[in-house]
Amino acid sequence: MSAHTASRTIRTRVAFAFTASALALLAASPAQATDGYFLNGIGAKAKGMGGVAIALPQDALSTATNPAAATALEKRVDFGVEIFVPDRGATISGNGAGLDGDYSGNGANPFILPEFGYVRPLSDHVSVALTINGNGGMNTDYEANPFANFGATGPAGVDLKQVFISPTIAVEFAEGHSLGVSPILLVQGFRATGIQPFTAASADPAHFTHNGTDWSFGGGFRVGYLGELAPGINVGAFYQSRIWAGGFDDYAGLFAQQGGFDVPESYGAGIAVQPVEGVTLGVDVKRIEYSEVQSVGNPLAPLFTGTPFGAEGGPGFGWEDVTVFKVGGSVDVSEDLTLRAGYGRSDNPVPSSETFINILAPGVVQDHFTVGATLGIGGGKELTAFAMRAPRNTVEGSGSIPAPYGGGEADVRLAETSFGMSFGWSF
């Protein structure tokens, strides 16, 4: 095979993988709710290390966390699949309208989420990359509807899916120091069912529930820095802007600002060190500003001061900003085998006063334990596997169900298990 033919074949395979990833992600229903509703890691290698990636480029998906990582990677492509199994539910007690009971939101499980990354150096100091990944999402499916005594029919729940498509360019502006930037295209879909009784509190009752999956598009950007402070010591930082998105018109009566649902801004920093040859340790810290997006951050309280669902300043899920810590390590057991482990800790975004509406979106897990491994299979090819367990966390309501809905408390809970594999090829 000629060099030209081989190059064309590689380009064809990469294009095919890109197209397949995009279609699969758009079809998937991601139910991740790890760092709030952000993923706890992007890329199989990072996921095996608790999500650590800001100062530790390991595969092409690293550029989805820190765009500057592209200059630290050789030409490669990565394609991964995660199988995700959340365990979500709620318990209602002391409710005067007859809602008391224990409810499972697990009507839909498991979820399959692919991801794709490609990096290509253009010169010794400039590299480009492309990633496609799910941001996470919120999914609940209560086959026994918690709101049935209010007159709700059918299963209750929501399904939010978000896909980021991020081309990247990165430049090494000084030896060992790089900057990168990624414009971000957002594609997102949303569906709500089984919440008919609350349409009376909406500014637009016809666009509140049971309108199928509505789609919207948006854009923003991500910038990053990666630097080598000394041999074996790297630092990194990133900032991701708010992703400004078109409204969900079919749910203009549910979300504040007539269906507005932007992705909140986030930023963070990390450090990675190699204390001895073959051993790498990393730490990341990240901040997510959920409260800045009205549909996510506004509390339920405006409903009882005359501002209905869907209006400017209208009720939301009441999520608070969160800080996330991640720590991970890897050991090269041999030339072809690397083992990983990690831990992540996220603040809980759901306050005890807002659990009633968050029956639909109980993104409350806080601790994440991960393991992973990579096996080289020759010819620049490798297989990576990982597993993650987030133990159940329960947020007990406190003054959570307003008197007009019968009072009492709603306790929400979530646990998560995920595992996956990826194929990487450096060529």
UniProtKB/TrEMBL annotation:
Superkingdom of the organism of origin: Bacteria
A Gene Ontology molecular function term of the record: long-chain fatty acid transporting porin activity
Signal peptide (from-to): 1-33
One Pfam family recorded for the sequence: Toluene_X
Membrane topology: Multi-pass membrane protein
Cellular localization per UniProt: Cell outer membrane
Predominant place of localization: membrane
Record's keyword annotation contains Signal: yes
Keywords, in A-Z order: Cell outer membrane, Membrane, Signal, Transmembrane, Transmembrane beta strand
InterPro entries: OMPP1/FadL/TodX
Transmembrane segments: none
GO cellular component terms listed in the entry, alphabetical order: cell outer membrane
PANTHER family tied to this protein: OUTER MEMBRANE PROTEIN NMB0088-RELATED
Family assignment from sequence similarity: Belongs to the OmpP1/FadL family.
Name this protein carries in UniProt: Long-chain fatty acid transporter
Organism of this sequence: Alteraurantiacibacter aquimixticola
